[in-house]
Design a protein that fits this description.
six-stranded antiparallel beta sheet, 163 residues, globular, alpha+beta, binds methionine sulfoxide
Amino acid sequence: MELELKEAARPEDVIAFADAVLSGEPNLIANLANLVSLLNQYLPRINWMGFYLYESGTGDWVLGPFAGKPACTRIGAGQGVVGQALAEGEPLVVDDVFSFPGHIVCDADSRSELVIPISAGGRIVAGLDVDSPEFGRFTGDDVVLLEAVCRRLGERWLDCRWY
Ligand code: SME
């Protein structure tokens, strides 16, 4: 597989690339790393993008593969934009992070944020968190595309291994 997205890539190219990543490799960390690289390359005006993974025992969401500045490693259940979206199991678009009660600042450049839950085996196992330095950056089209990628990831999740 060619691990490069063309300059004029379309959403369907991103989906095809994600399918290629997920079908070719069972290692979860490798797949999350390549998916975050792919999406970060595709989506413009983003300052941070990465996965938070459910940790059984604590119930925390723990930092996984990401692109951007070093970030908060652990988010408690229900905390921040990530914790709230993953508790509710629905995509959450925040146009202005300063007006979101409990927002957790990781990168001070972030102005808007989007979280997409990833479900596998009937529960939420992770989330994709995307931050932008622009207010109101995220559109319905972004949600549709990222949900499609996260749905595919969730379908493969239980067949993947962690190391
Ligand atoms: N802002 C998030 C924390 C994660 S960082 O943006 C990478 C939140 O409020 O949950």
